[in-house]
Structure formats: structure tokens, C-alpha cells
């Protein structure tokens, strides 16, 4: 089977899809939230286009806004912080290798696109299979200490099939490739978001209980999907640092597990897995 690379021009369509529908993450939710900043991704792939890094970071920002545990700071606000401190994209000064604290910021997400492209495999001249792939290398940094909380690669891939004409040429629409690149990027970003959300899981409240049905104040806008599992819990005693007196959190007692069966924009219904005894409005809920 002969292999050949799809023209880099197709990547341009992907860039447009990344940038379409981007909105400013200005929503501020009530309650204590962790402030997180996302730096435009560096493009280290074979495609030399600076806009690609911004497109990927925009997708990541839009997904993070769904988690009520985070407040995503504005891009220009973060850029201004870095200009004032003369920092590189990773929060380190451009001179000595020394991390500079970001006051008012808890986490910094930096990354690069290490691969973005498509490859075609001709199946005996009758059909063609195209694999579209986007690979990201991402780090999440503690904005106060500079410690790297985690670092890993995330890959998103989409396989497309198409027929060949009588001359053996691929019948492959540009619109199809555009959609595939966008989908591959979103798959990679979804893996990154899942990792970030593990640091501060999405949390909400139980608003009503009816038998084994539990209504929560998280919905489609926060990324809730049917089939997901959430833990219902209650907070107990406050935990404070014995030396500094700083409040670190609170005891958490798991009460039940629910499986989401119905989702609306700002609300979801879950079914209790096991006993529903003692559940009440005001209990907290977090994604497992």
C-alpha cells in the first residue's frame, strides 16, 4: 500500500474551524474558584502557522470555562502579566532560569503542538483511508511555586474513508478534511481538559431529590453528559494548616453515586446507584 501526505493547505481549513465561535471567557461563578491561565500554544509541528497555537488554546479555554471550579482569566490580562514580568511562555524569566510568581493566579497551562497532519493509505487503488492526527504536549504549572503538576502528551485522531475514481485519484472533499482536523484537535484537547479537571473536579449542588432521582445544578453548559457518574458528598470539619493557620479545605464524606440519565442546559437528572436514604437538597456533587 502506497502512502502519501495530504497537502499542508488542508491545515488552513482546520485553523479556521479552531478560531470560529471563540468567545471571551468572562463568566464569573459564585464561590471560591481556582484562577487558571492558558498561554497560546507554541507550534512545533511540521505546519508553520502561528495561528494554529492560538486556535488550540482557544478550544482549551472554551472547555475549561465549563468547569465551575475554575475561573479562566482573560487572554489579554495574562499577556499583560507576562509582559510586565518579562516572562517566557512557561512563566520563567527570559534571563536567569528563575520562576516568577503570578499573584492572583493559581495555575498556568502551557503547551505546544508537536504534530499536526494527515496521511493517506491507498487500498489497492479502490479506496483510500486518511488518518488525521493532532498531538499536543502540555504542562500544568503551579503559578505560585513554578512546580510542574503534570506533563504529558495528548493525541487526537480521526480516520476517514473515501473512494477513488477510475484514475485511482482520491475523491476527498476539503470540507471533510476541515471537519476532521477540527475533530482531531478537540479529541486531543478533551484529554487535556480531563487531566486538568482531575486537579479540581467539577462540583455543584443537589437541588432536589425525588426517590432515586436526583436533580443537580450542573448541565450541558458545564459539560455534563448522559451516562457519566457523579459522587454526592457532604463537607465536614474545616481543615487548617497547624502552623500557618491557612484553611486548606474540608472533610468530605461520600453519600451516594448517581448516573446521569437526562441533561438540560443548566441542570441534569441522575439516578442513584444503590440506596437513596438520607439524600437531600444542598448536598454537594462532583464528577468522578
From TrEMBL:
UniProt entry tagged with the keyword Lipoprotein: yes
Q: Which UniProt keywords apply?
A: Cell membrane, Lipoprotein, Membrane, Palmitate, Signal
Q: What cellular component GO annotations does this protein have?
A: outer membrane-bounded periplasmic space
Q: Which domain of life is it from?
A: Bacteria
Presence of keyword Lipoprotein: yes
Any Pfam family from its record, for instance, is CsgG
Domain (Flagellar assembly protein T C-terminal): give its ranges: 211-285
InterPro entries referenced in this protein's UniProt entry, alphabetically: Curli_assmbl/transp-comp_CsgG, FlgT_C, FlgT_C_sf
Protein name according to UniProt? Curli biogenesis system outer membrane secretion channel CsgG
From which organism does this entry originate?
Answer: Sporomusa malonica
Amino acid at each position: 500500500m502506497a502512502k502519501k501526505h495530504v497537502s499542508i493547505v488542508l491545515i488552513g481549513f482546520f485553523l479556521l474551524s479552531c478560531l470560529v465561535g471563540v468567545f471571551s471567557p468572562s463568566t464569573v461563578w459564585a464561590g471560591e474558584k481556582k484562577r487558571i491561565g492558558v498561554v497560546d500554544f507554541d507550534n512545533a509541528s511540521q505546519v508553520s502557522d502561528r495561528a494554529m497555537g492560538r486556535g488550540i488554546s482557544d478550544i482549551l479555554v472554551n472547555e475549561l470555562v465549563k468547569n465551575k471550579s475554575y475561573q479562566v482569566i482573560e487572554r489579554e490580562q495574562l499577556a499583560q502579566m507576562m509582559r510586565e514580568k518579562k516572562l517566557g511562555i512557561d512563566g520563567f524569566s527570559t534571563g536567569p532560569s528563575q520562576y516568577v510568581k503570578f499573584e492572583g493566579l493559581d495555575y498556568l497551562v502551557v503547551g505546544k503542538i508537536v504534530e499536526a497532519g494527515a496521511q493517506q493509505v491507498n487500498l489497492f487503488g479502490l479506496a483510500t483511508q486518511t488518518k488525521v492526527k493532532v498531538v499536543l504536549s502540555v504542562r500544568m504549572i503551579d503559578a505560585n511555586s513554578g512546580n510542574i503538576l503534570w506533563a504529558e502528551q495528548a493525541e487526537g485522531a480521526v480516520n476517514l474513508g473515501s473512494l477513488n475514481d477510475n484514475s485511482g485519484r482520491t475523491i476527498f472533499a476539503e470540507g471533510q478534511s476541515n471537519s476532521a482536523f477540527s475533530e482531531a484537535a478537540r479529541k486531543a484537547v478533551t484529554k487535556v481538559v480531563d487531566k486538568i479537571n482531575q486537579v479540581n473536579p467539577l462540583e455543584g449542588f443537589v437541588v432536589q431529590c425525588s426517590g432515586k432521582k436526583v436533580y443537580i445544578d450542573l448541565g450541558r453548559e458545564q459539560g455534563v453528559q448522559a451516562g457519566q457518574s457523579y459522587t454526592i458528598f457532604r463537607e465536614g470539619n474545616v481543615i487548617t494548616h497547624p502552623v500557618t493557620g491557612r484553611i486548606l479545605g474540608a472533610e468530605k464524606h461520600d453519600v451516594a453515586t448517581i448516573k446521569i440519565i437526562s441533561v438540560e442546559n443548566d441542570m441534569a437528572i441522575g439516578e442513584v446507584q444503590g440506596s437513596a436514604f438520607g439524600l437531600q437538597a444542598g448536598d454537594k456533587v462532583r464528577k468522578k
